[in-house]
Amino acid sequence: MPRSANKVASKARKKKVLKLAKGSFGRRKNVWTVAKNSVEKGLGYAYRDRRAKKRNFRALWIQRINAGAREHGMSYSQFMGAIHKHNIELNRKALADLAYQHPEAFKALVEKIR
Description:
Layout: H1 7-20, H2 32-71, H3 76-85, H4 92-101, H5 103-113
């Protein structure tokens, strides 16, 4: 008896990939092989960049804290060292928000740890 492919499953698989390719330009949205490659690459980038996003935000927070600290005559490392020495439990995200949005509150924090 000849082998038969499971048309229902293969069609569902293709529909799922073509749905993910929706919005792409040219043949990427409707030609199976091109769409499959495009979607696989895109999902790979998405996986990678969900991790890179965390690194990028931490780097941004450090830059903002550094800029705020330097306005008051301290480097980033001196500032963070003093924060830890005084047992101030603020993370970099909160400190960066203070430095960027509320400079007067950040100045008060710098005066406290001096």
